[in-house]
Design a protein that fits this description.
The chain has 188 residues and is an alpha+beta fold. It has one domain. Helices cover 29% and strands 35% of the residues. The protein is built from 5 helices and 6 strands; from the N terminus they run ββαβααββαβα. Strands 4-5-3-2-1-6 form a 6-stranded antiparallel β-sheet.
């Protein structure tokens, strides 16, 4: 049964389980030491991503940034901000995994959300990059962080598109599976 996504306002804090599209990450290509010259910048595009950071931290961070803006400070930074980087996970159109050669056994486990690495979301159709999507696949190995001020700046500049967020009853399962995957004991 498809999940109805909860709509998000055009402005406001990010939400846990929110589906975003057109997320760009820019990273300095440099060793972790003091720099004497400007580094090269590497950019990576995430066509579809899901926010995994906790709602309470995202709300407190948003309120701290808004309070900083009210005090005539840069609205994208505050010494009271809580979240310096937002945790996200790449989401893919289901057919992409099938085209990568997933075995029938693996695909059967994924389809029923029985594979620990993947989480399948089936929801009412949304428009992403000109395509109507009703099913996404999260690959828990494809988690990444984005600098919080960059996310809010891209939202204001219409770079990142907000599509809605997963209802709490389904979000609990998603978050439990994501953190269980990353908390597992890794064996060689």
């Amino acid at each position: 049964m498809p999940i109805p996504l909860i709509p998000v306002p055009e402005s406001g804090e990010l939400r846990q389980g929110e589906i975003l599209s057109n997320v760009w990450v820019h990273r300095a290509v440099a060793p972790a030491r003091e720099l004497r010259e400007a580094p090269d910048v590497d950019q990576h595009h995430h066509p579809i991503a899901v926010v995994l950071h906790s709602d309470c931290d995202l709300l407190q961070d948003f309120n701290a940034r808004r309070a900083g803006a009210a005090e005539n400070r840069d609205p994208h930074w505050s010494e009271r901000s809580i979240v310096t980087q937002v945790l996200m996970c790449d989401a893919f159109v289901v057919d992409e995994l099938r085209n990568r050669g997933a075995s029938k056994d693996l695909w059967a486990r994924i389809k029923n959300n029985q594979d620990e690495r993947y989480h399948r979301l089936e929801f009412d159709p949304i428009a992403v990059t000109g395509t109507q999507l009703s099913e996404l696949l999260l690959d828990f190995r494809k988690a990444f962080m984005v600098h919080t001020p960059d996310v809010y700046a891209a939202l204001v500049a219409d770079g990142i598109v907000r599509h809605g967020y997963v209802p709490p009853v389904y979000l609990h399962d998603l978050m439990q599976r994501f953190f269980s995957y990353h908390a597992r004991v890794g064996l060689p």
